[in-house]
From TrEMBL:
<keyword id="KW-0408">Iron</keyword>
<comment type="pathway">
    <text>Sulfur metabolism; hydrogen sulfide biosynthesis; sulfite from sulfate.</text>
</comment>
<dbReference type="InterPro" id="IPR002500">
    <property type="entry name" value="PAPS_reduct_dom"/>
</dbReference>
<feature type="binding site">
    <location>
        <position position="124"/>
    </location>
    <ligand>
        <name>[4Fe-4S] cluster</name>
    </ligand>
</feature>
<dbReference type="Pfam" id="PF01507">
    <property type="entry name" value="PAPS_reduct"/>
</dbReference>
<comment type="function">
    <text>Catalyzes the formation of sulfite from adenosine 5'-phosphosulfate (APS) using thioredoxin as an electron donor.</text>
</comment>
<comment type="similarity">
    <text>Belongs to the PAPS reductase family. CysH subfamily.</text>
</comment>
<keyword id="KW-0963">Cytoplasm</keyword>
<feature type="binding site">
    <location>
        <position position="206"/>
    </location>
    <ligand>
        <name>[4Fe-4S] cluster</name>
    </ligand>
</feature>
<feature type="active site" description="Nucleophile; cysteine thiosulfonate intermediate">
    <location>
        <position position="232"/>
    </location>
</feature>
<keyword id="KW-0411">Iron-sulfur</keyword>
<dbReference type="InterPro" id="IPR004511">
    <property type="entry name" value="PAPS/APS_Rdtase"/>
</dbReference>
<keyword id="KW-0560">Oxidoreductase</keyword>
<protein>
    <recommendedName>
        <fullName>Adenosine 5'-phosphosulfate reductase</fullName>
        <ecNumber>1.8.4.10</ecNumber>
    </recommendedName>
</protein>
<feature type="domain" description="Phosphoadenosine phosphosulphate reductase">
    <location>
        <begin position="49"/>
        <end position="211"/>
    </location>
</feature>
<dbReference type="InterPro" id="IPR014729">
    <property type="entry name" value="Rossmann-like_a/b/a_fold"/>
</dbReference>
<dbReference type="GO" id="GO:0004604">
    <property type="term" value="F:phosphoadenylyl-sulfate reductase (thioredoxin) activity"/>
</dbReference>
Amino acid sequence: MTAIQEERTTEDLKALAERAGRELEDASALEILQWAAETFGNRFCVTSSMEDAVVAHLASRALPGVDVVFLDTGYHFPETIGTRDAVEAVMDVNVITLTPRQTVAEQDAEYGPKLHDRDPDLCCALRKVKPLEEGLKGYLAWATGLRRDESETRANTPVVGWDEKRQKVKISPIARWSQEDVQTYVAEHGVLTNPLLMDGYASVGCAPCTRRVLEGEDARAGRWAGRSKTECGLHG
C-alpha cells in the first residue's frame, strides 16, 4: 500500500477509518502504526503530552522522522519540558511545539488570573484545543496514546477511528494496552518517561490542574481533582 497522494473526500477518510478500526482491532501497536505510515506518509503525525514517549518511539519505528506534535500550554511542569527536549535529542522524530495565541500573562490580562481555577474548560480550549486544531490542519491522520484502561470515558476507544470534530482519522495504537504493557515496553526499549511518573503522578498534565494519585484511584484521578471535568477537550 502506498501513502495517500491525492486528496480524499471526508466520506472516503471516514469509511477508511471505520474499516481499519475493525480490521486492525487485534493488530499489534506497531502494525497499526505501520498501516498509518503506509497509508498517510507525511500527512500523519503523533501527538504527545510527554508523559512518556512510548507512542512516539513506536511511530519512529514505523516512520522514521515522524512529526511529534507537543502542546506547550505555558503551564507545564519543568519535567515535562525536559522530557520533550530529551525526546527531540535522542529519538528519530521531528518534534513540533505548538503554543497558544496568548501567553499566560496575556491571557491573565484578558480573562483574569488563574482562569484554570475559575473556568478550566475555557482555559483548556484556549491553551490546548484551539492550538491543536490549528496544528493538525496539514495532516490527514493523527495518533494518540489513549488507552481503554485509563478511565471509563476512554473504555471504548477504537484503535483506528474517525475524529468527527477535526474531520481526521484518529489512531490510538496502544488502546488495548494495560499499564503493565506500557511499563514492559518502556523497559525493553529504554523509552524516555516523564520523571513525575516516579513521583506519584499517574497522569501528567498542566501543573495547576494535576496532583499525585492516591492508592486505589484510577490513573486520571489526579487531573482536575474535585471537579466533574475528566478530559481537556482534545479527545471528546
